[in-house]
Write a structure and sequence with these properties.
The protein is an alpha/beta fold. The chain contains 7 helices and 7 strands, in the order βαβααβββαβααβα. It is 43% helix and 19% strand. The longest helix has 24 residues.
Length: 211
Amino acid sequence: MLIIGIAGGTGSGKTTVVNKIINSFPVGEVAVLPQDSYYKDSSHVPVEERSKINFDEPAAIEWTLLERHLKELKEGKTIEMPTYSYLTCTRQEETVRVEPRDVVIVEGILVLNDPDLRKMLDVKVFVDADADDRLIRVIARDCVERGRTPESVISRYEGVLKPMHNMYIEPSKRFADLIVPQGGSNVVAISLLTDYIEARLRKERKLENAN
């Protein structure tokens, strides 16, 4: 099993990169664990306070559960991945069954921040993009998917996203094995990444067959 971590700022194009990797392999060969699924449950927080939760700092993530699930997948076990609702800021009762695959991608803005998680990653990728481009994507996404107004998105970007990006996300770039500029539109970098993944998988299968 090859475990790949894909990090980068909000709106940088991480999901596009992940989807292009998935589409480069046979159906069912790649499993994805979104960091967003592992946000800590906030159902105990009063509703009026939930909008103030900072989702862009490492403390918001239940790293121990994510790492345990990765370990179990590597051991050949099936996991029940949690789901999280941005509308209610709570973990949902529903889970998603994830089976072990040849390639497991862990994707999210803070994926390269946690030292224990980094040790589990075979390949560490940082998707980079211009700050203005990221802001435009965030406005479009949050207004459509999360029911927010452009004014509230911009306010949150200036008050939370930008400072957290500078404090946690941008510095994590130094841990990356590969930096993908221009997000999901960088065809060359994505092609190099998929070629590398294929080569690693061939090598692992050859070793398994030899044993």
